[in-house]
Amino acid sequence: MQHFGSKQELFSRAVQDSSVPEDAEPGELVERMLETLGVKLSGLPPASFGSALSPGDRLFLNSSLWPGFVPRYREVIDLARSADVAQVVKVSVRGAEPGALLGGGMHGEVEAHLKASGLAWSILQPVGFMQNLPAEVSFQDGEGRFHGSYGPGRVGYIDARDIADVAATLLTRPVGADETYVLTGPEAPTHDEIAAAVSAALGRTVRYVDLPVEELTGRLERQGLPGPAARDLAELMAQIGDGRWSTTTGTVEALTGRPPRSLTRFLTDHAAAFRL
User: Which CATH superfamily is domain 1-126 in?
Assistant: First the structure.
């Protein structure tokens, strides 16, 4: 794993390792670079990954979830410790802890292993991604809708580009104290307010439809999600709706020197991603 001494080096590697054009915005370059580094974790055998690590490296851990997520992450953290890596920066999720629903529990187990490893660490705990919104809104019957069990609860959704920028900052500045960083957007709207913002951005009516947990579970199962996962996801939405993700933080601005991107900015930049 290569050590990146500056954001310029990170940008240069992003262009080399991906299809991002050289004139792309810095945030896009960072986001693609971090995606590239993260996806390597699930594809490399542990021995191959360990051979890529050197003393003083800065290791970024980020990937989607899969059945072997926890043991593989533990293996890689142990390899990083053996290689005398200088720092590990890991993307997790807000409220992660062992035993939590879905990814929160998996991330919680990995966080505990990382904290006990003796390595220097920084853990990023973002809330939900704005980037998930286009796939959730359906216009199949003319009117746009998206469903959940959040009730009136507010959620400080974050643009994933801000997570990438925070990670790049931590990976290229001197290693600091171990810390968990909770990352949010600048505001925490209700899902009815999100629907209104999407409607304004697209020029088409979009509604949020709130469903009881049981009803949402059945809907998710009909969409192909296995029963236990569907139930856990509906339960998680209801938990989030109790207000635990309603507070926002100033962490993005404190680390990057600029405020996080707003929902309006995200919708302006990504309107074409919605399947109208």
Answer: NAD(P)-binding Rossmann-like Domain (3.40.50.720)
